[in-house]
Specification:
The protein is built from nine helices and no strands. The protein is mainly α and about 210 residues long. It has one domain. The protein is globular and about 45 Å long.
């Protein structure tokens, strides 16, 4: 039940995220549906490839596809006065998707009896893979590589599950809430990892 609920939450959150990014880029209705679906299922597809599962396993998730299509349709029909607040509540939706899919990916890897490294990778790819593909298809720099802390929370999620510190349903739901909150706080207060800027002028200078 925990697995299925987290999958549904993540699917809705990322499908909505992809659809709204497509509308921001002024894609037509087909582009909105494609970007929404790719965002919702892209991370799972990449995860399956890297842990040795066929990508075709995704086609067995007919219920999830229906949920994603319904979510995208609702967003497409939203009044503009609601969509203009996307910057306020859109990051909350993205945080929910990250937390839900990171946990789901980690649980998937545990079920496949993967080592700790595999569990962490599965959590990161499932939690952020769809968002990376979304940003690339929309011509944007992937959020996971810049601006705020993003993938770190998926790594933390995978590590806690891999170490056996979050196994029971109530522990997983608590972890879901914690990761969502941490992602929102990192966005709100602009937490960033250390980085080093390297400009073109420096590269061209003798």
């Amino acid at each position: 039940m925990t697995w299925e609920l987290l999958s549904i939450i993540g699917t809705i959150a990322f499908a909505v995220s992809g659809a709204i990014v497509a509308m921001e880029e002024e894609y037509d209705i087909l582009g909105v549906y494609i970007l929404g679906i790719v965002t919702a299922f892209g991370g799972g597809a990449i995860r399956n490839l890297l842990i040795g599962l066929p990508v075709t396993a995704l086609w067995n998730q007919s219920t999830s596809f229906i949920i994603a299509l319904m979510s995208i349709t609702l967003v497409f029909l939203f009044p503009n006065n609601l969509l203009k607040h996307w910057r306020i509540w859109g990051n909350f939706t993205d945080a929910i998707g990250l937390a839900a899919f990171a946990i789901q990916g980690a649980l998937y890897a545990v079920k496949m009896q993967m080592p700790l490294s595999g569990i962490i990778v599965a959590a990161v790819l499932t939690g952020s893979g769809g968002g990376i593909i979304r940003d690339l298809l929309a011509g944007r720099k992937p959020l996971v590589f810049k601006d705020e802390i993003y993938a770190v929370w998926a790594i933390l999620c995978g590590a806690l599950i891999g170490w056996g510190l979050a196994e029971k349903p109530w522990e997983l739901y608590f972890l879901f809430l914690a990761i969502t909150l941490l992602r929102i706080l990192s966005y709100k207060y602009k937490w960033r990892l250390p980085y080093r800027a390297y400009s073109k002028k420096e590269r061209l200078s003798p």
